Amino acid sequence: MAKRRSICRGSIVLRGKKPVLVLGVDGPECIVVQLISTNPPYHRSDVDLGSSSLLLRNRIARAARVAHVAQSALRHMAADIGPAAEADVLRVEIAVQREMMLQTGEQIPAGTVRSGWRPPKWGGCGRKIGGAPSD
């Protein structure tokens, strides 16, 4: 019987037919981010992984698509592929935290936070009309 390899932080595995990057392992569950191709449209949470390893060439980690998945639902892509670089995993984690913060801010009801934008005042402000230019 073949020995099953363990899934660790930085592993690139398949979830169904789509590649994912493992950000963390917590017992029987993994936190994963979906990897997509570099074709537009781009999202604010996209992290380009193109310059790192051969496996991640032309790939983008979409930090808005974070999922908690059972380890039994994940399978390895190939026998000799190692984990992604720790610097890439850290970049993706920072993007995930930023995206979660932005999504939390978007859930605040309208009118709760006072905006800094003010409409123009009518009369008394603006360009002077008539009279000497120095007045």
Protein described:
Helices cover 16% and strands 30% of the residues. It is of the alpha+beta class and 135 residues long. Strands 4-5-3-2-1-6 form a six-stranded antiparallel sheet. It is elongated. The model has no long low-confidence stretch (mean pLDDT 81).
Record the SSE blueprint.
Layout: E1 12-15, E2 18-26, E3 29-37, E4 46-48, E5 59-70, E6 74-76, H1 86-106
Antiparallel strand pairs: 1-2, 1-6, 2-3, 3-5, 4-5
Total DSSP helices = 1
Oligomer type: single chain
- The number of strands is 6
Radius of gyration: 24 Å
Query: Can you tell me the overall shape?
Result: elongated
Mean pLDDT: 81
Helix content: 10-25%
Structural class: alpha+beta
End-to-end separation: 94 Å
The biggest sheet amounts to: 6 strands, antiparallel
- Strand order across the biggest sheet? 4-5-3-2-1-6
Our estimate of the beta-strand percent is: 25-35%
Q: Which descriptors apply to this entry?
A:
135 residues, alpha+beta, 6-stranded antiparallel β-sheet, 1 helix, 6 strands, 16% helix, 30% strand
